[in-house]
Amino acid sequence: MLSKPLHPATPTDGPRHVALIMDGNGRWAEARGLPRAMGHREGVQALKRTVEAAPALGINCLTVFGFSTENWSRPADEVSDLMGLVRTYVASDLKRLEREGVKVRILGRRPGLPADIVAIIERAEAQTAHNEKFTLQVAFNYGGRADIVDAAQRHVDRVLAGEATGPLDEKTLEAGLSTAGAPPVDVIVRTSGEQRLSNFLLWEAAYAELVYQNVLWPDYGHDALADVVEQYRNRDRRFGGRATPGAAPALAAV
Ligand code: IPE
Ligand code: IPE
Ligand code: MG
Asked: Which domains does the chain carry?
Protein backbone atom coordinates (compact mmCIF):
# COMPACT_ATOMS: atom_id res chain seq x y z
CA MET A 1 0.00 0.00 0.00
CA LEU A 2 1.27 3.49 -0.84
CA SER A 3 2.11 5.53 2.22
CA LYS A 4 -0.11 8.56 2.62
CA PRO A 5 1.50 12.03 2.50
CA LEU A 6 1.90 13.44 6.02
CA HIS A 7 -0.12 16.52 5.20
CA PRO A 8 -2.63 15.91 2.41
CA ALA A 9 -3.30 19.21 0.63
CA THR A 10 -6.55 20.89 1.56
CA PRO A 11 -7.93 24.18 0.26
CA THR A 12 -6.67 25.83 3.45
CA ASP A 13 -3.06 25.10 2.52
CA GLY A 14 -3.14 28.12 0.28
CA PRO A 15 -2.29 30.07 -1.67
CA ARG A 16 -4.79 32.59 -0.37
CA HIS A 17 -3.49 35.57 -2.32
CA VAL A 18 -2.35 35.09 -5.91
CA ALA A 19 -0.93 37.97 -7.95
CA LEU A 20 -0.93 37.69 -11.74
CA ILE A 21 1.07 39.54 -14.37
CA MET A 22 -1.38 39.10 -17.23
CA ASP A 23 1.09 39.05 -20.12
CA GLY A 24 0.89 37.94 -23.74
CA ASN A 25 -2.26 39.60 -25.08
CA GLY A 26 -0.36 41.13 -27.99
CA ARG A 27 1.37 37.89 -28.98
CA TRP A 28 -1.91 35.99 -28.74
CA ALA A 29 -3.51 38.40 -31.24
CA GLU A 30 -0.49 38.61 -33.54
CA ALA A 31 -0.32 34.81 -33.77
CA ARG A 32 -3.86 34.92 -35.20
CA GLY A 33 -3.28 37.86 -37.52
CA LEU A 34 -5.59 39.97 -35.35
CA PRO A 35 -5.09 43.51 -34.07
CA ARG A 36 -3.56 43.68 -30.58
CA ALA A 37 -6.79 45.23 -29.29
CA MET A 38 -8.47 41.84 -29.83
CA GLY A 39 -5.89 40.27 -27.55
CA HIS A 40 -6.72 42.77 -24.83
CA ARG A 41 -10.42 42.09 -25.32
CA GLU A 42 -9.89 38.34 -24.96
CA GLY A 43 -7.72 39.13 -21.95
CA VAL A 44 -10.79 40.55 -20.22
CA GLN A 45 -12.63 37.25 -20.79
CA ALA A 46 -9.67 35.39 -19.30
CA LEU A 47 -9.77 37.66 -16.26
CA LYS A 48 -13.47 36.88 -15.77
CA ARG A 49 -12.81 33.13 -16.00
CA THR A 50 -9.93 33.40 -13.55
CA VAL A 51 -11.88 35.38 -10.96
CA GLU A 52 -14.70 32.86 -11.20
CA ALA A 53 -12.33 29.91 -10.76
CA ALA A 54 -10.39 31.31 -7.80
CA PRO A 55 -12.70 30.78 -4.78
CA ALA A 56 -13.13 27.02 -5.35
CA LEU A 57 -9.33 26.71 -5.42
CA GLY A 58 -9.12 28.21 -1.92
CA ILE A 59 -7.99 31.65 -3.13
CA ASN A 60 -9.65 34.67 -1.55
CA CYS A 61 -7.60 37.49 -3.04
CA LEU A 62 -6.39 38.06 -6.60
CA THR A 63 -4.20 40.98 -7.65
CA VAL A 64 -3.83 41.48 -11.38
CA PHE A 65 -1.54 43.80 -13.33
CA GLY A 66 -3.64 45.71 -15.85
CA PHE A 67 -1.50 48.70 -16.78
CA SER A 68 1.98 49.66 -15.63
CA THR A 69 3.44 53.12 -15.16
CA GLU A 70 5.70 52.17 -18.11
CA ASN A 71 2.82 51.15 -20.39
CA TRP A 72 2.24 54.85 -21.22
CA SER A 73 5.18 54.44 -23.61
CA ARG A 74 3.04 52.30 -25.95
CA PRO A 75 1.38 53.89 -29.02
CA ALA A 76 -1.58 56.12 -28.12
CA ASP A 77 -4.17 53.81 -29.70
CA GLU A 78 -2.99 50.86 -27.63
CA VAL A 79 -2.97 52.96 -24.46
CA SER A 80 -6.58 53.86 -25.12
CA ASP A 81 -7.45 50.17 -25.76
CA LEU A 82 -5.95 49.33 -22.38
CA MET A 83 -7.93 52.12 -20.71
CA GLY A 84 -10.91 50.40 -22.30
CA LEU A 85 -10.16 47.34 -20.16
CA VAL A 86 -11.41 49.24 -17.15
CA ARG A 87 -14.44 50.59 -18.99
CA THR A 88 -15.48 47.18 -20.29
CA TYR A 89 -14.58 45.03 -17.33
CA VAL A 90 -15.07 47.06 -14.16
CA ALA A 91 -17.93 49.19 -15.42
CA SER A 92 -19.95 46.49 -17.17
CA ASP A 93 -19.34 43.80 -14.57
CA LEU A 94 -19.71 45.90 -11.46
CA LYS A 95 -23.22 44.71 -10.62
CA ARG A 96 -22.20 41.06 -10.89
CA LEU A 97 -19.01 41.56 -8.88
CA GLU A 98 -21.00 43.33 -6.20
CA ARG A 99 -23.61 40.58 -6.09
CA GLU A 100 -20.98 37.85 -5.89
CA GLY A 101 -19.34 39.36 -2.82
CA VAL A 102 -16.21 40.70 -4.54
CA LYS A 103 -14.49 43.72 -3.04
CA VAL A 104 -12.80 45.65 -5.88
CA ARG A 105 -9.72 47.73 -5.16
CA ILE A 106 -7.73 49.58 -7.78
CA LEU A 107 -4.03 49.97 -7.01
CA GLY A 108 -1.87 52.66 -8.57
CA ARG A 109 -1.75 56.37 -9.19
CA ARG A 110 -5.00 58.17 -10.03
CA PRO A 111 -3.55 61.48 -11.27
CA GLY A 112 -2.86 61.16 -14.99
CA LEU A 113 -5.79 58.81 -15.64
CA PRO A 114 -8.76 60.03 -17.75
CA ALA A 115 -11.48 61.54 -15.54
CA ASP A 116 -14.11 58.96 -16.55
CA ILE A 117 -11.77 56.11 -15.57
CA VAL A 118 -11.18 57.69 -12.17
CA ALA A 119 -14.96 57.98 -11.73
CA ILE A 120 -15.43 54.28 -12.64
CA ILE A 121 -12.68 53.28 -10.20
CA GLU A 122 -14.19 55.30 -7.38
CA ARG A 123 -17.66 53.94 -8.03
CA ALA A 124 -16.39 50.34 -8.16
CA GLU A 125 -14.55 50.71 -4.89
CA ALA A 126 -17.41 52.46 -3.10
CA GLN A 127 -20.06 50.01 -4.32
CA THR A 128 -18.10 46.91 -3.31
CA ALA A 129 -16.35 48.18 -0.15
CA HIS A 130 -18.72 46.20 2.09
CA ASN A 131 -17.95 42.87 0.40
CA GLU A 132 -15.75 40.46 2.29
CA LYS A 133 -15.88 37.10 0.52
CA PHE A 134 -13.27 37.83 -2.09
CA THR A 135 -10.92 40.70 -2.95
CA LEU A 136 -9.96 41.61 -6.51
CA GLN A 137 -7.18 44.16 -6.75
CA VAL A 138 -6.50 45.60 -10.18
CA ALA A 139 -3.15 47.34 -10.53
CA PHE A 140 -3.73 50.12 -13.01
CA ASN A 141 -1.27 52.93 -13.68
CA TYR A 142 0.69 51.01 -11.09
CA GLY A 143 4.42 50.70 -10.57
CA GLY A 144 6.04 49.00 -7.60
CA ARG A 145 8.67 51.73 -7.32
CA ALA A 146 6.08 54.52 -7.52
CA ASP A 147 4.03 52.76 -4.84
CA ILE A 148 7.00 52.56 -2.46
CA VAL A 149 7.91 56.22 -3.15
CA ASP A 150 4.30 57.27 -2.50
CA ALA A 151 4.23 55.32 0.78
CA ALA A 152 7.48 56.96 1.90
CA GLN A 153 6.18 60.38 0.90
CA ARG A 154 3.02 59.76 2.92
CA HIS A 155 5.16 59.19 5.98
CA VAL A 156 7.22 62.34 5.29
CA ASP A 157 4.00 64.37 4.98
CA ARG A 158 2.71 62.99 8.28
CA VAL A 159 5.98 63.82 10.02
CA LEU A 160 5.93 67.36 8.59
CA ALA A 161 2.32 67.75 9.77
CA GLY A 162 3.33 66.61 13.26
CA GLU A 163 1.14 63.48 13.00
CA ALA A 164 4.01 60.99 13.11
CA THR A 165 7.46 60.90 14.66
CA GLY A 166 10.47 58.66 14.69
CA PRO A 167 12.34 56.84 11.96
CA LEU A 168 10.43 55.09 9.21
CA ASP A 169 10.12 51.34 9.79
CA GLU A 170 8.86 48.46 7.61
CA LYS A 171 5.46 48.27 9.26
CA THR A 172 4.81 51.98 8.76
CA LEU A 173 5.95 51.97 5.15
CA GLU A 174 3.87 48.88 4.42
CA ALA A 175 0.79 50.57 5.85
CA GLY A 176 1.20 53.30 3.22
CA LEU A 177 1.38 50.94 0.22
CA SER A 178 -1.67 50.61 -2.00
CA THR A 179 -1.90 46.91 -1.04
CA ALA A 180 -2.22 47.75 2.69
CA GLY A 181 -4.95 45.70 4.33
CA ALA A 182 -4.79 42.85 1.80
CA PRO A 183 -3.43 39.47 2.91
CA PRO A 184 0.27 38.83 2.17
CA VAL A 185 0.99 37.90 -1.45
CA ASP A 186 1.70 34.15 -1.48
CA VAL A 187 2.61 33.75 -5.12
CA ILE A 188 3.33 35.97 -8.10
CA VAL A 189 2.54 34.42 -11.47
CA ARG A 190 3.66 35.67 -14.87
CA THR A 191 2.15 34.28 -18.01
CA SER A 192 3.55 34.23 -21.57
CA GLY A 193 6.94 32.76 -20.65
CA GLU A 194 8.61 36.05 -19.67
CA GLN A 195 10.50 35.79 -16.40
CA ARG A 196 10.61 39.23 -14.80
CA LEU A 197 8.52 41.37 -12.48
CA SER A 198 8.32 44.48 -14.73
CA ASN A 199 7.85 46.71 -11.67
CA PHE A 200 4.95 44.70 -10.17
CA LEU A 201 4.59 44.40 -6.38
CA LEU A 202 8.29 44.94 -5.66
CA TRP A 203 7.87 45.25 -1.90
CA GLU A 204 5.29 42.47 -1.64
CA ALA A 205 7.48 40.13 -3.73
CA ALA A 206 10.05 39.81 -0.91
CA TYR A 207 8.99 36.28 0.10
CA ALA A 208 6.34 35.48 -2.48
CA GLU A 209 6.78 32.30 -4.49
CA LEU A 210 7.32 32.93 -8.21
CA VAL A 211 5.60 30.89 -10.90
CA TYR A 212 6.17 31.34 -14.62
CA GLN A 213 3.72 29.81 -17.05
CA ASN A 214 4.01 29.50 -20.82
CA VAL A 215 0.32 30.17 -21.43
CA LEU A 216 -0.59 33.49 -23.10
CA TRP A 217 -2.99 35.50 -20.94
CA PRO A 218 -6.06 35.28 -23.24
CA ASP A 219 -5.88 31.47 -22.90
CA TYR A 220 -5.86 31.62 -19.08
CA GLY A 221 -8.54 30.13 -16.85
CA HIS A 222 -9.31 27.45 -14.27
CA ASP A 223 -6.73 24.85 -15.35
CA ALA A 224 -3.80 27.26 -15.42
CA LEU A 225 -4.78 28.65 -12.02
CA ALA A 226 -5.15 25.13 -10.60
CA ASP A 227 -1.61 24.43 -11.85
CA VAL A 228 -0.37 27.47 -9.89
CA VAL A 229 -2.04 26.12 -6.74
CA GLU A 230 -0.42 22.75 -7.23
CA GLN A 231 3.04 24.23 -7.83
CA TYR A 232 2.62 26.44 -4.77
CA ARG A 233 1.70 23.51 -2.55
CA ASN A 234 4.89 21.74 -3.57
CA ARG A 235 7.07 24.64 -2.46
CA ASP A 236 8.66 24.87 0.97
CA ARG A 237 8.42 28.47 2.16
CA ARG A 238 11.24 29.07 4.59
CA PHE A 239 11.21 32.87 5.09
CA GLY A 240 14.91 32.71 5.87
CA GLY A 241 14.46 29.91 8.41
CA ARG A 242 15.08 26.18 8.08
CA ALA A 243 13.44 23.68 5.75
CA THR A 244 10.21 22.13 7.00
CA PRO A 245 10.91 18.47 7.98
CA GLY A 246 9.55 16.19 5.28
CA ALA A 247 9.24 18.96 2.68
CA ALA A 248 10.29 18.13 -0.86
CA PRO A 249 13.90 19.23 -1.48
CA ALA A 250 14.26 22.06 -4.00
CA LEU A 251 16.93 20.14 -5.91
CA ALA A 252 16.20 16.71 -7.28
CA ALA A 253 18.44 14.03 -5.77
CA VAL A 254 21.18 12.96 -8.19
C1 IPE B 1 -0.30 42.23 -21.48
O2 IPE B 1 -0.16 41.88 -22.79
C3 IPE B 1 -1.30 43.31 -21.33
C4 IPE B 1 -0.75 44.56 -20.83
C5 IPE B 1 0.49 44.96 -20.82
C6 IPE B 1 -1.74 45.41 -20.28
P7 IPE B 1 0.88 42.62 -23.73
O8 IPE B 1 0.19 43.70 -24.47
O9 IPE B 1 2.09 43.05 -22.98
O10 IPE B 1 1.22 41.44 -24.72
P11 IPE B 1 2.62 41.06 -25.33
O12 IPE B 1 3.59 40.93 -24.19
O13 IPE B 1 3.01 42.16 -26.27
O14 IPE B 1 2.37 39.77 -26.03
C1 IPE C 1 3.79 44.11 -17.59
O2 IPE C 1 3.85 43.63 -18.87
C3 IPE C 1 2.59 44.98 -17.42
C4 IPE C 1 1.29 44.33 -17.45
C5 IPE C 1 1.06 43.07 -17.63
C6 IPE C 1 0.18 45.21 -17.22
P7 IPE C 1 4.67 44.32 -20.04
O8 IPE C 1 4.41 43.51 -21.25
O9 IPE C 1 4.37 45.77 -20.10
O10 IPE C 1 6.18 44.15 -19.53
P11 IPE C 1 7.55 44.10 -20.34
O12 IPE C 1 7.63 45.38 -21.13
O13 IPE C 1 7.50 42.91 -21.22
O14 IPE C 1 8.60 43.99 -19.29
MG1 MG D 1 3.86 42.12 -22.55
From this structure: 17-232 (3.40.1180.10)
The string of pLDDT tens digits covering residues 51-60 is 999 999 999 9
Active site positions, annotated: 23, 71
In the reported structure, the alpha carbon of residue 4 is separated from the centroid of ligand 2 by a whole-number distance in angstroms of 42
**Which residues make Cβ contacts (< 8 Å) with residue 224, sequence separation at least 6?**
191, 213, 215
Ligand 1 pocket, residue 71 CB under 6 Å: yes
pLDDT tens-digit series, residues 219-234: 999 999 999 999 999 9
Q: Please name the helix (run of DSSP H) or strand (run of DSSP E) that holds residue 64, with its range, or none.
A: strand 61-68
pLDDT tens digit string along 105-135?
A: 999 999 999 999 999 999 999 999 999 999 9
Using a 6 Å cutoff on CB, does residue 20 contact ligand 1?
no
Q: What stretches of 139-193 show up as alpha helix (H) in DSSP?
A: 144-160, 170-175
> Rounded to whole angstroms, what are the CA distances from 39 to 24, 36, 185, 221?
8, 5, 27, 15
